[in-house]
Amino acid sequence: MPRIAIVGATGAVGRECLALLDSGIVPVERVTPVGSARSVGRDLGAELALSLPVAPLVTVDDLDPRDVDVAVFCAGADVSLREAERLAAAGVLVVDNSSAFRMRADVPLVVPQVNPGALADRPVSHLVANPNCSTIQLVRALHPLHELATLESVVVATYQAASGGGLRGLEELAEGSRRVLDDPGARVEPGGRFGQPLPFSLVPEIGLQDDSGRTHEERKLVREPRKILGLPGLRVSATAVRVPVFHCHSEAVHVVLREPVTVEAVEKALTATPGLRVHTRSDTPSYPMPRTVFARPEDRALVHVGRIRVEPEDPRAVAVWVVADNLWVGAALNALQIVGLAMENGWLR
To answer: Which of 107, 214, 227, 330 is deepest in the core (most CB within 10 A)?
Structure first.
């Protein structure tokens, strides 16, 4: 069984990694939580009521690579760029949740349900990248459509929850919402985790804009699906919006396929895909919503697809609504499924 370090263990994604490991998603000999100097020595096992063996928290500087087989990085691109390659050079398999290495040619960008073949062999770099949270649920819905009738283009609008901004983002939404409810006329100054006030509003800008007006989040949504799906020429247009929802990202996805399809064929292809839950017009309600998806662990572990439509004017054009838990499906769960796939492929003891 592997010895796993969780870098950024006190953050939103790190905590979910610990909880999922405690549920037995992959067997583990020992977990070492890694955090900042002010958290050194914390007993996260006791704090989070975990039953798996958890060492006292250490800093990444004090993490001995000889005591670790896998390091899951959940601490942001700055920490990954500074520390991940050092551990990888020492032979540790690094699964990185940040954007630091995703587009590097020597680093696989992996969604196990979509491109498991990318991990047929252990990468020479010892680095594996976890895709952007919105990308993961997107490609998991796109993959069966591509296999059904071949993707030609994708237009996606994402509606991303405050938990995408970590614990600080959740706190800002809760505190700001209380402030506005107490005084609807209160002025909330720009700034904070989302750049603009999020309570009772929408922020159509996630990350800095480039010269074309495309934001950092939108660039990820354009580039990453091409690499994961092996479709470098796929046309993708994305608009990323932060919404005042605590958990789960939603996406309105419109695709054009090479061949005409029917709603029945699309529903059949999606229903046959492991890890997807299809909501049809016979369901009540006939679509997934963030609050209901987050309510049960079994739903948090799935990608939910509903509002399936084929355009009457063009039977090659398909629209779907996709909802998934960004902390599980979009981060912690996908990262640990990568670890599980590495174990299945025999490159971890």
So the answer is: 330
Residues 146, 249, 279, 304: which is the catalytic one? 249
Mean pLDDT of the chain: 95
Query: Tokens standing for 261?
Result: 């399809």
Closest Cα partner for 79 from 3, 166, 200? 166
Interatomic CA distance for residues 261 and 210, integer angstroms? 37
Contact indicator for 251, 133 with CB cutoff of 8 Å: no
- The DSSP 8-state label assigned to residue 79 in this structure reads H
Among the listed residues 133, 247, 248, 304, the single catalytic one is 133
Tokens read off for 254: 């419109």
| Residue 281, both tokens | 């017009």
Judge whether 216 counts as a catalytic residue: no
Q: How far apart are CA 131 and CA 228, in angstroms?
A: 9
Give pLDDT tens digits for 207-257: 999 999 999 999 999 999 999 999 999 999 999 999 999 999 999 999 999
Q: What is the DSSP letter of 55?
A: P
Its pTM surpasses 0.85: yes
Sign of CA dihedral 206, 211, 213, 218: negative
* Among 272, 275, 255, 253, CA closest to 264: 272
Residue-wise pLDDT tens digits, 109-165: 999 999 999 999 999 999 999 999 999 999 999 999 999 999 999 999 999 999 999
